[in-house]
Amino acid sequence: MNKQINLWKNHPKIDKRLKEEMDHMSEAELIEAFYEDISFGTGGLRGILGAGTNRMNIYTIRKSTLGYARYLTRQYPHLLLNGVVIAYDCRHYSKEFAKEAARVFASLGIKVYVFESLRPTPEISFAIRHLNCIGGAMITASHNPPNYNGYKVYDPDGCQLIPELADMVIKEINAIEHILDYEVPSYESLVQKSLIELIGDDIDQVYLERVKSIQINRNVNHNNVSIVFTPLHGTASVFGASLLSDLGYQVYPVKEQMQNDPNFSTVKSPNPEEPGAFDLAIKLGTKVNADILLATDPDADRLGVAIRNDQADYKLLNGNQIGALILYYLAQFKHRTKKGIVFNTIVSSNIASYIANSYDLEVQQTLTGFKYIGEQAKKLENAEEEFFFGYEESHGYVIADFVRDKDAFQAMVILAEMAAYYKKKGKSLLQILDEIYQRFGYFVEIQHSMNLSGIEGTKRIELIMNTFQHMKLDSIANQRIVMVEDFELSKRIRNGQVEAITLPKSKVLKYTFEDGGWCVLRPSGTEPKMKVYVSCKGTTWKEASDKVALIKEDMLNKINQI
């Protein structure tokens, strides 16, 4: 570690800003910044901005891009001029990182299409296939705090790399030793050679037409629904409000949050899962009497929703509730010619299976990470079944798989249509959600995150997971465990019998209870967090909520004792 610190501090060509930063860092800060190389997780490369091998900066971007580019040259040696697509969000240094990545690709003879200004994540997934490219990169840290940035990489199908492919990229990255000495031609010279080409409105229009095509009941009275929309300072500002307006809805943008701001100054967290992200939207919604509030995260792949209730207050829905509402609507009205497959993840509510089974649909679960859903969508292209709907409890949805990543715009369009359809029948989406609960049972889920950052946090997460892996649990909060699934060991123990789990390996433990409820323990793949998920079903909301609360309390007590 000290060797790396000295190399960075004394390298003659080190970036001046990073050199000054290191000169003012304490020994402890230097250790945190260099104790390991920043690594790929469920969302690719993501970390704190700054100097160091464990930070996001031009050198870690160059190294990751060089490794990814070398992977592409080995996989697609005759298709390099098909190119890659690069997009970026509004975060600090996103544009600079996009240019650095473009320089590395182009210097190796790989054609690069760079969006002329910030664009949302789902559009890059679409653009890769539309332009017949061999891959792409998105510079974003999604909903992480302002001092983060990240780097997502994609395959030719617009899907983030699954572990098998990511491991090949990581192998290439790890083989690079002297990234500080690696030099590439200037951005401008590569543009002049046509190895870098700017794209923008031409792709926007094709993508937006595809998004609009997911509408089902096109004769609904769009003008009868009023929508407050906020991009939370992020990329959906490009065309989120205009998309809904073009469809005929009354749209009220949250003006303070339509401005691209890398500090996300009006919110504590730019995460539409967090209630505080809706404060300004609720204020505007109350003023204009809006039916529904919609908020996207900074790269516009996640969508948060709040619905006005009978008391004219707004209720924020969680990701499972939004997924259940969309699935219930699609199941009744979306046309299909084959057996429809719904994809969600091992931490998604069981309510999806109840809805799907009643409409002759099938639910298949993947590991957490939308790349796994994209992978399965690809497998259905020429199968006897067809992709019907995919979602994650963390507010990611895709209705039509011309995008193989989460797509907040598709979710916006279908939810706006749903609001209009049910309003004509004198119902709100909250009333439809209650209809779902009355029909299929009351499902309650929580997700609790523990922030465990830095070296000590990493060790703590490892200790927690290892302890639970070796812990013999018969029950949690007096709920008898009937099945334990260890996704890292690919092992399922059910009624004393050991079975193999065929999903990819992942550091996840899942406990299923006698009544069908479950509890999951997993480290976040994109943040320094330990996560606990709990899901229970009851005949009333209170019954299910009480079960969830007791299980959560017992699990946290067990963790705190470690």
Keywords:
single chain; 562 residues; alpha/beta; Alpha-D-Glucose-1,6-Bisphosphate, Chain A, domain 3; TATA-Binding Protein; eight-stranded antiparallel β-sheet; seven-stranded mixed β-sheet; 24 strands; globular
Task: Provide a quick synopsis of the model.
The chain is α/β, with parallel strands linked by helices and 562 residues long. It has 18 helices and 24 strands.
Mean pLDDT value:
96
Ranges where pLDDT stays below 50 over 5 or more residues in a row are none
Strand segment tally: 24
Please name the CATH architecture of the largest domain.
Answer: 3-Layer(aba) Sandwich
Radius of gyration: 24 Å
Task: Give structural notes.
With 562 residues, the chain is of the alpha/beta class. It has three domains: 205 residues, Alpha-D-Glucose-1,6-Bisphosphate, Chain A, domain 3; 228 residues, 3-Layer(aba) Sandwich (Alpha-D-Glucose-1,6-Bisphosphate, Chain A, domain 3); 117 residues, Alpha-D-phosphohexomutase, C-terminal domain (TATA-Binding Protein). The protein contains 18 helices and 24 strands. Strands 17, 18, 19, 20, 21, 22, 23 and 24 form an eight-stranded antiparallel β-sheet that branches. Strand 1 and strand 2 form a beta hairpin. Helix 4 packs across helix 7, helix 12 packs parallel to helix 13 and helix 12 packs across helix 16. The protein is globular.
